[in-house]
Amino acid sequence: MAWTERLNARPGRIALGGAEIDVYHWAEMADTVVNPPHRHTYFEVCWVEGGHGEFVVEGETHPIGPGSLLFARPGVRHQIISAEPPGIRLAWVAFHLRVAGGSDLFEAFAHSARALSHDASDQVAALWTALRTTGNGPALPGQDVATNAVAQALVVALAQAGTEGLRSEPVEPPDAGASTVQQALRYVQDNLDRPLSVDELARHVHLSGRHLTRLFTEHVGRSPAAYVEQARLDHAAALLVRTDLPIKQVASAVGYADVTQFTRAFTRRLGTPPGRFRTAANLHSVLSVS
């Protein structure tokens, strides 16, 4: 079994002090990459193991090479473009982060705008290598525990790299509006398996629907309804890639009772029907490995 399969079989939750990290996906690939500019509702941290290219963040281009760490933060438009063949080798982890206080490291990471760092100490490289070594191969007694321990250490190292040189500065606390929006965003992520109305979100944070919409427009750049749909469909895309669930079950898992409505919404957002999206993702995975 590959290390990614072992970890993705039980992605799980990592609790570190006042931070909770819900890990969605571990992955690696070696290919020529030209992905379109896109956003996530979650964090994604990529490590460049080999090859060269560019990391474009909100229109700003950063050259990348071996040892580069790419931080794709929630809501931030980004794109990875590899140089000419043989392309680029990447490993990455996607996760949702909740910080309730008590973790200066992850508090700083959550509020940092850093898009790029470099693994100057080779700490991340060593941990990713250890993760592969520990997680690959047939199941052995204690292997899952050891693999998860290395994965946890790697997540901490990535957060450290994403805040290096920043934590000595005091982290400005978010204003009341930003805190309210973060509370609403967490509620959305925790309830993706059912329809969510603006009124329900507003009641959860004790605001009127109009006031919440105003805060979302200011802090998220879209309405609550648009954000909910984006979060549901992003999660659906992850399920299509990571699982073999029938499309009807994927639709239900992200709150769509009607598969036709789900297919229409998914196609409108991602430009292709869910079945074709899964086929293309699986084919890409096969080609990356071969």
Automatic annotation (TrEMBL):
InterPro entries: AraC-bd, AraC_XylS_family_regulators, Homeodomain-like_sf, HTH-like, HTH_AraC, HTH_AraC-typ_CS, RmlC-like_jellyroll. Residues 182-280 form the HTH araC/xylS-type domain. Keywords: Activator, DNA-binding, Transcription, Transcription regulation. The keyword Ribosomal protein does not apply. Pfam families: AraC_binding, HTH_18. This is AraC family transcriptional regulator. It comes from Phytohabitans aurantiacus.
